[in-house]
Amino acid sequence: MIPNPLVKKLAASQTVLGVAVRQARTVDIARIMKTAGYDFLFIDTEHTPVPADVVSQICQAALGSGIAPIVRTPNLERVHAIHALDSGAQGLVFPHVENADEARHIVDICRYAPAGHRSMAYGLPHVEFASHDPRELMDFVNRETLIAVMLETPEAIERCEEIAAVPGIDILHVGTQDLSAEMGIPGEVGAPAVAQAIERVSRACAAHGKVLGVGGCYDPEFIRRYVTQARARFFVVGSDLGYLLGAARAQSAKVRASLETLG
């Protein structure tokens, strides 16, 4: 049985860092990002059309590399969640969760009984496709699967206490890009209004034993602030697309600047 490294780290009150996978379509991204120092892959199927078979392959490569495969689903539908979980994901992040009813629906489709009504599947990659006692398998998978819900609107922030109270949800993840846009201050992820929203979610998390996550915020100073002031511990701090474009742009600019000195 392959444990989820994030479960142990979060239980020890460690801060974990993830990288969004948007462009990569090959399994080597798992070991590359593990070597780069990340704790988890944030495989984004909401904003990019990553095929299900590619998600499965990357998840299984991650399971063997010591970096947790976490999948952001495109929506709250059961089929997307089950495909990702049965293909090797050790956690799911659900976008645009607005209330406790939606959070309870998520738990229902992601947790095995008695916590939910997830359909049983055998030969899971999480246990190297081996056969196990059903009770033992269900307990292990329930324990090692992280479920995060994204709060991305002022309305969701207003309901954060009721969302945090739902058993079976592990992480409340504030999506600062969409939240700031909804507030009329797009991109201002360090704005006082955004910070106040994060602090409110932080209090809800503390009251109900949940982990606070912050997404869409890449500035180290903002991240440091949210760790120290809001006790956030789950961050997505970059993407493969951003790193590829940034490094490529920097190299081309450096070489062109050097060539300009030739006259």
UniProtKB/TrEMBL annotation:
Entry's Gene Ontology molecular function annotations: lyase activity
Keywords assigned by UniProt, alphabetized: Lyase, Metal-binding
A Pfam family matched in the record: HpcH_HpaI
Domain HpcH/HpaI aldolase/citrate lyase: 27-210
Entry-linked InterPro entries: Aldolase/citrate-lyase_domain, HpcH-HpaI_aldolase, Pyrv/PenolPyrv_kinase-like_dom, Pyrv_kinase-like_dom_sf
PANTHER family registered for this protein in UniProt: 2-KETO-3-DEOXY-L-RHAMNONATE ALDOLASE, PHOSPHOENOLPYRUVATE CARBOXYLASE FAMILY PROTEIN
Family the UniProt entry places it in: Belongs to the HpcH/HpaI aldolase family.
Name of the protein this chain belongs to: Aldolase/citrate lyase family protein
Organism: Pigmentiphaga daeguensis
